[in-house]
Amino acid sequence: MISPMQLQTPPATQPATGAYALIDSLIRHGVKHIFGYPGGAILPIYDALYQAEAAGKVQHILVRHEQGASHAADGYARATGEVGVCFATSGPGATNLVTGIATAQMDSIPMVVVTGQVTRAAIGSDAFQETDIFGITLPIVKHSYVVRDPKEMAQTVAEAFYIARTGRPGPVLIDVPKDVGIEEFDYAPVQPFDVQIPGYKPTTRGNPRQIVHAIRLLRAARQPLLYVGGGAIASGAHAQIRQLAEHFQIPVTTTLMGKGAFDEHHPLAVGMLGMHGTAYANFAVSECDLLIAVGARFDDRVTGKLDEFASRAKVIHIDIDPAEVGKNRVPTVPIVGDVKKVLSDLLARLEADQPVDPQRTAAWRSRVDSWKQDYPLAVPTYPELLSPQEVIVELSRQAPQAYYTTDVGQHQMWAAQFLKNGPRRWISSAGLGTMGYGMPAAMGVKVAVPESEVICISGDASFQMNLQELGTLAQYNINVKTVIINNGWQGMVRQWQQSFYGERYSSSNMEIGMPNFELLASAFGVKGMLVKDRTALSDAVAEMLAHDGPVLMDVRVRRDENCYPMVPPGKSNAHMVGLPERPARPKEMVQCSHCGAQNPAAHSFCPECGTKL
After folding, report:
1. What is the pLDDT of residue 280?
2. Closest CA to 80 of 399, 338, 446
3. Whole domain around residue 257: which residue ranges?
4. Phi–psi pair at 527, nearest 5 degrees
5. For 51-98, what is each residue's pLDDT tens digit?
């Protein structure tokens, strides 16, 4: 982190501008990189930035489109846990940030977004390049400011960073009129975290009585399941989740946002659940008797038909945001607090408690393991054409420790199924589902972690939404490897049209007008590659990874491959399509969750106690 004294503060008697106060305050908060695009209303801020950048205090990355700036700041934040920062000018510059701000808000990503604005006197007059970005973004930010007095600048920045990164993280907007950036005043800096905001005090510690109640349920459960979401990543609760899972021998499933919170190589891991989750995760959530939701929000892509989601289970719900607890599913035990702190308190209480019998969940774990054997994720192969799954598995084999970003669609779901990522190494737009996110996000990740491998998995349709950022990669030699899973379609749209719309493929074919991606990359000064067959894939991936600089690899895959398993809309998670046929097995026994008696799986009720199986 940059020392507060690295950028000299002018004496109190020496005037400073609002723009200087902004840049100085950002540096005091440890900002090392800013992603942005200049314009008229924000020029005073860029002038101050010029001085700071020349002094080596901060680096500005010039994107080719403001949306790229917001996604890059988002990726930077996801990879590091720090606040990402982006700049844009007024009017169209500010509105071009909106998709990226909404992406960050939906996925709870800490960002500070600075926009230029017309002068104070011109606000409301429909001046050139004036938009009410404060009002436009009000529903998609955690908080927002319009700085009308330069004396408020340092305090505003300190509050913005505090709000963005505490409680449930999110984006904060700071709108700066042009004359506020120019105006001189006696500048007094505000130190980071030296803020108090009336009415804003997130609850971080869980209620002790609720924690005790949760422990009772954990001890009584015979078929428990940990359901882990993005809140666990934001909190850094990876070690606590593993400890809890191992203590009670609980299988663990994660959401798309929760990938990396639990080691997917661990025998208790059952992968992602939901619409394109693993069959065994979806069966487990349908059959569990206790669901421990950790930093998850019961999103519709996870739950399927909500009233049949974990319908047999009691629910413990742990989340930092009280608005999420009980929003979609009323929990048996609600616990509001920071996930890491709540789990730490719960585990501390367990240390002084009686040991847990690991055999209590043995039958349940055996059943989950049988689902893993019967319904594994398949990597299809075809005589001539590559399957998308083969490409992703090969990337994972050669770059297992890489940071992976994705765009949105079939390739995103295949990547979620087959990559086994570490903490903060899975970076994808989950809540908003933003096409065009992958490459600019990877750009931000690589700037944040320059010594690590960063790979973007994209689709031919998604990539074309922000392909101009190849210019940014070239200018700064940002060593991002982008792999296009190219099937010539908007793949997920085509799959839905095939499955639910009578194979009426309306406006989803991307072949006509598709650029030659290899030549396109070369035109930007980036290495371009084309892979068409299986025999070339392994060597091509190795060549891509070995290249010292950005690479765009176009991989042609089977055009009509569908992403399975899939929970159709309006169905429960147990009713997946695209599953392999289950092999014949000896008569399966199921343990009654109430009395523990063993019963044939075909039974609907336990004959010993009458409990529904």
Report:
1. 98
2. 446
3. 208-374
4. -65, 125
5. 999 999 999 999 999 999 999 999 999 999 999 999 999 999 999 999
- What pLDDT score was predicted for residue 469? 98
Residue 357, pLDDT score: 84
CA distance 463 to 488: 12
Cα gap 459→438, rounded to integer Å: 9
Query: How do residues 111-136 score in pLDDT, each as one tens digit?
Result: 999 999 999 999 999 999 999 999 99
Local confidence band at 5 (pLDDT 50, 70, 90 cut-offs): very low
Other C-beta atoms lying within 10 Å of the C-beta of residue 592: 21
**Dist CA 385 CA 532 (whole Å):** 8
Cβ atoms of residues 433 and 408 within 8 Å: yes
Q: Do both 526 and 496 map to the same domain? A: yes
Give the β-pairing of 480-486 and 171-177: unpaired
Of how many residues is the chain composed? 613
Separation CA 461–CA 450 (nearest Å): 28
Domain assignment present for 199: no
Tell me what the pLDDT averaged over the chain comes to: 94
Q: Structure tokens of 112?
A: 């500070």
Output the pLDDT for position 13. 34
Q: Is 187 left (phi over 0), alpha (psi -120 to 50) or beta?
A: beta
Asked whether residue 442 falls in the same domain as residue 530, the answer is: yes
Say what the pLDDT of residue 194 is: 82
Q: Is pLDDT of 568 > 90?
A: yes
Q: First CA to last CA across the chain, in angstroms?
A: 56
Q: Which two tokens stand for residue 204?
A: 């971080």
pLDDT digits (tens, 9 = 90+) for 140-159: 999 999 999 999 999 999 99
Is the domain of 474 the same as that of 530? Answer: yes
The burial of 409, by beta-carbon neighbours within 10 Å (0-12 exposed, 13-18 middle, 19 or more buried), is given as buried
Query: Quick check: 488 and 510 in contact, CB under 8 A?
Result: yes
Averaged pLDDT, 257-276: 98
Domain identity same for 219 and 337: yes
Tokens of 392: 């992703």
Its pTM surpasses 0.70: yes
Residue 521 and residue 467 share a domain: yes
Distance, CA of 184 to CA of 407 (rounded, Å): 44
**Which residue pairs from 334-338 have beta carbons closer than 8 angstroms and sit at least 24 positions apart in sequence?**
334/210, 335/206, 335/207, 335/210, 335/211, 335/214, 336/203, 336/206, 336/207, 337/203, 337/204, 337/205, 337/206, 337/207, 338/202, 338/204, 338/205, 338/235
Distance CA 585, CA 567 (A): 25
User: Which residues are catalytically annotated?
Assistant: 66, 128-129, 178, 492
Tokens of 111: 């960002």
pLDDT at residue 1, rounded to an integer: 37
- Exposed, middle or buried by CB within 10 Å (0-12, 13-18, 19+), for 583? exposed
Inside any domain, residue 279: yes
